[in-house]
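Duplicate of earlier report; Inactive metallocarboxypeptidase ECM14 input re-posted below.
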Amino acid sequence: MRSQTLASLSVLLLAAAPLATAAPQSQPAYPYDVSNAPNRTPPTWRRLSDAIIRKIWSLPHTQKSLSDDNGNAHQAATEQFVSRYGDDVVLRFKIQTADEAKALAEASDVLFLDVWEFNEDWADIRVAKDVIPSLLGLLPSSLKQSHEPLMQDLDLAQAVFDSYPSSSATQSHQHDHSYAPSLKTVSRKGKGGHPFLQDYQPLSVINPWMKLMASMFTTHVRQITVGTTYQGRDIPALRIGVHPTNNEVPSGPRKTVLITGGSHAREWISTSTVNYVAWNLINSYGKDREITRLLEELDFILVPTLNPDGYVYSWESDRLWRKSRQPTSLRFCAGIDLDRSYPFKWDGDVLRTNPCSESYAGSAPFEAVEAQHFAEWAKNETEQNNVQFVGFLDLHSYSQQILYPYSYSCSDNPPHLEDLEELALGLAKAIRVSRKGHAYKVTSACEGNVAVSSDKKHRTILPRIESSGGSALDWFYHELKVKYSYQIKLRDTGSYGFLLPKEDIAPTGEEMLDAVLYFGRFMRGRVGLVTAKNQDARIHEPADEEWELVDHVEAEDKEVIEL
Ligand SMILES: [Zn+2]
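Output:
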């Protein structure tokens, strides 16, 4: 693995030279404005991507495409997926009563089923086809009827197969100029831009890409490490921001927004979205007035994957792996759910502790070394490094929800409930009016984890489908006092679930970038989509309903927002 990473890095660094020299660095205001650079696709990304895909699937060098129906390697890979996932199906159960929720939770526990996702209306559960009769036998008769398979037209094994990048995906765009990197233009209006952002990427590409960003954009990007994994990998992050150097007034703590992904390994869209946001912030500095100001006033720390061991495992062994790779008391059931292992309201001791569970909380709080290291790092930043975390966006998938604290219980309201809801609704609106943005629901994280009666008059809290204590969301909000802490579940709402097609990478990235920019405006006291002062920022022409918001914003424009 290490040699593979080093090889990738050397390829990338070789590639960095022509890209870096293409940027005229003699313009102090816009040090990386390469608007005159030729519009060309760097073949390095294709070569690197193809090489890694070949390495993972042991494809011969001449194999042109994983999707090539004629290839023996394709057939071998397909058989591999069918043997692993072909017997499984994901069922969506519509939940309406407490009895149904309770029975489903108990049955999932008894049968060690993999609960993919759930909200107040439904629960998606992965189950082997031959276990379905046993599952249905444990459920009330109403639930036996109210379920249907996800990905109806698509076999689970095929969906898994399709989620890996194919070398043809890049080759087919070889002469397509829309596929060129966004070095030529500011990418806020564009598509995914850089080829790196068109496919899901393995860690062996993400790590050197981050190094490359830090080496190319030294004015505003630094690579940092926020911890080490159980297997000894670094957990890398990018710190993006420009600190004023000639400010004689002693500055207070540096306001910083933390954006994380990949806590759950199989949620690849969360990792790709962090990278998408990172690239657009990096690439827009010095070109886009609003983003330039934003990076002068705030730091962004972006962690594409908090769980590198699990992420690598999801690429190389099991696409549907969720937890870390840390051993447990049961030899054949490795892994701790990082998002259950924080000490605030950790509930591993009161729930049945089953290391084989997909949401195993560990045998003690912070047993998962990744969570422990990350929390220690964050605490140290605030106590030793003059950092004030003003926002925490923990990206997950799927179900399109913006969730605010608390996760562990609905009976306890956070002190800043109204503020949290207000900003969450703003984020959801920013996403909805984004380019082809989707609808995201705003709710408490406890409700995302607890079925609530569909009879809205009586919001009876139904039994949990899964435990929800010990979350990163609650820990950062309550222990680290990050006032605006959210968990955001990205696309989709169940068509593909974790196996979201790569065509969704850029649109999901775009809508989350718009949410992050809204977040930044909110932090700078400029809530709203467009204000009079930043109309020169290159934002799309607002629709009528956006102008209503602008009017509202302008009235409050000078109001200082207390953080
Ligand atoms: Zn997750």
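The longest strand covers residues 387-397.

Merging into the original ticket.
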